[in-house]
């Protein structure tokens, strides 16, 4: 079964739009990784400051290969293609904290629509 990773980002008030813009321009590098299955950026709606970056992978090994690879480093560099503005001064981070939660998928149901 697949593994799911949540990158839990603490985003200060007023920085959500910046974070969303940076993800929109992230360059799409993860989509081409072996074992990658799904990505979602989840915006908080219930009065907290935590954005969730959801990814699903075929295996823990596939996820670790992504995290330890050059494409991961390039896609997460502040001056890279995925940032709000390339080159010059590094932009201020949109998140003030980050932690990764990992889960193994034991059941999965999809809609029929």
TrEMBL record:
Gene3D superfamilies from the UniProt entry: 3.30.70.100
Domain ABM: 3-93
Any one Pfam family match given in the protein's UniProt record, by short name: ABM
Ranges where the record places region Disordered: 68-101
Organism: Nocardiopsis kunsanensis
InterPro entries listed in its UniProt record: ABM_dom, Dimeric_a/b-barrel, Heme-degrading_MO
Protein name: ABM domain-containing protein
């Amino acid at each position: 079964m697949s593994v799911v990773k949540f990158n839990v980002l603490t985003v200060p008030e007023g920085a959500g739009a910046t974070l969303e813009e940076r993800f929109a321009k992230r360059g799409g590098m993860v989509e081409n990784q072996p074992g990658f299955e799904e990505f979602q950026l989840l915006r908080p709606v219930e009065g907290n400051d935590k954005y969730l970056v959801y990814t699903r992978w075929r295996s823990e090994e596939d996820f670790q290969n992504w995290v330890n690879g050059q494409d991961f480093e390039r896609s997460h560099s502040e001056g890279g293609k995925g940032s709000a503005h390339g080159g010059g001064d590094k932009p201020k981070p949109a998140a003030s904290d980050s932690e990764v939660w990992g889960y193994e998928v034991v059941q999965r149901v999809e809609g029929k629509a």
